[in-house]
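Before the break, one more example. Copy the sequence into your notebook; we will annotate it together after we see the structure.
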Amino acid sequence: MPPLQPIATNIWVMDFPLRVGGLQLGTRMTVVQLASGGLWLHSPGPLQPEHVSAVSALGPVQALVAPNAMHNLFLAQTVVLFPRATVYVSPALPAKLTPLIPHEILTDFPPALWKEEISQHVVGGLPKLQEVVFLHHASRTLILTDLAFHIRHSDSWFTRLFMRLNGVYGHFGPSRIFRAMVKDRAALRSSLEQIQTWDFDRVIVAHGEVLESSGKQAMHTQYAWV
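Here is what the structure looks like once it is written out:
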């Protein structure tokens, strides 16, 4: 499989193996080519030389996005690989960045670099996660990180068992662990209502398969408990 997998015009994903506590979760980086010709990298993964070459062939990397409190594992490495890129991080991350990396904090207002192409929102009610979700308008793609999983298959029996117990194996949706992280259900509900006003069909997640269609209905159904 080539390093970059096209999803729609000007948007690609790059998948990486990732083990967490014995779980084979995998992780995904999303790449968007902006109107400027530059690239927007969401949740950078453990890039190897062949990955760097594939990305660089598309254009210069302008933005590195660490979208929640847990998706900064490979950020320092990626900053070294693309030193001219600006780093944008979840509000939860500045205190965790070691070594200290120059950065801008993500809010509900997109930076000028992508404000005409990508919308964003800091999801409320999750103080330990503070995930920022994004909408790529042209491809009608919602880009999530840990707000939902979509692991439909796994070669690891332990991963299958754990994710079943976690309530997310074989289908799209939030995990039981995620639900336990909710501290303000009203704030989360408000964020989900805002996301539902966006025009999207596809949903990219960091762990599992891309949900190619009916994403808006899936978000509504799977978050009905809120």
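Residues 161 and 169 are 8 Å apart (CA to CA). Helices lie at 49-56, 75-81, 157-165, 176-181, 185-196, 215-222. Try to locate both features in your own notes.
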